User: What shape does this take?
Amino acid sequence: MAVRCVQRNIPVILVLCCSLFFSATAVAAGKSAANESLNNKIGQMLMVGFRGTALNDGYVILRDIRRHHLGGVILFDYDVLTRQPGRNITSPQQLKNLIAALQQAAISPLLVAVDQEGGRVARLKPEYGFSRTVSHAELGRLDDPQATYSASAEIAATLAELGINVNFAPVVDLCVNPDNPVIARLERCFSAQPDKVIHHAREVIQAHKAQGVVAVIKHFPGHGSSHSDSHLGFVDVTNCWTERELVPYTKLLETGEVQALMTAHVFNANLDADHPATLSHSTITGLLRGQLGFAGVVFSDDLQMGAISEHYGLEQAVQLALEAGVDILLFGNNLDYDPEIVPRVVNIIRDLVATGVISERRIDESYRRIMRLKGVER
Assistant: This one.
């Protein structure tokens, strides 16, 4: 274009203006592309819950997927705030249609997650037309690896048929406190013995892998010794937690079979004197990534749980989770409901990057791990 200006004998000053204009336009376009790339990376680092059993164009979740590049959703059968069943799940066919509609709206494949541990913690219940499932505790008492594999394979096959590709299971917390209100009392742990937990957890992981479903072990670095529920508020395990609770994680990670892991919101001064595990750099980056060598995806537990939301503001929690090394920030949107949670968190992370508090390199690290988990090579 500048050459054509010269050929027509237009004054040199105008030539320079033409050149500067198109150079500025190219720079602006480059910045726009870079921003779009950053937006996509940030969106992939979020997983949220939503309300609805079917979709239309007015649904906020579709906006979040299309505009904010949301990377994952979590499904619930019960709405805690309204105390109503059927939040996302009413029947197998309904759920399959819902998931298909969500995936159709996504550019990058969505991670579609559920807590289908078995027993009392199961979102796909018989009253919605699904098969009864058995708890980790039942399988631990039976102590038959083949039975554990078969039960897990049935769950995984059901999930795969529906289009659910992530299961937040198995729980590898030790049953060290039989009165633990959120683990042992709900029969969510296999055993108090690390070797037994490892044995059964491997069967669960392998059964899911055979169906193409990611099994996410939880709750790192151990929730089994707690005396209270991190859904409700601050949980301090400093005086009851022991390194023995790390054994299932250490041994399972050594197998190379673990693709993803979920953090616990427990505070443990032995590991971090300031923050609970989900927000702890020394626990996630230092212990999990550094000492244990985990290279897979780290999910936070729900950041709207009382252990986080009652002690940290949203901006602080997001910043600390990213600094800790969490890859996917989970907002169940069930204990609290915020239809604007995705754009709010996207803007928080963008601001953290823009001000240099969080580097884009840090975002890239999580983005690459997430893409590998999705099977998209980047």
Notes: The radius of gyration is 23 Å. The chain has one domain: 44-374. The first strand starts at residue 46 and ends at 48. The longest helix spans residues 12-44.
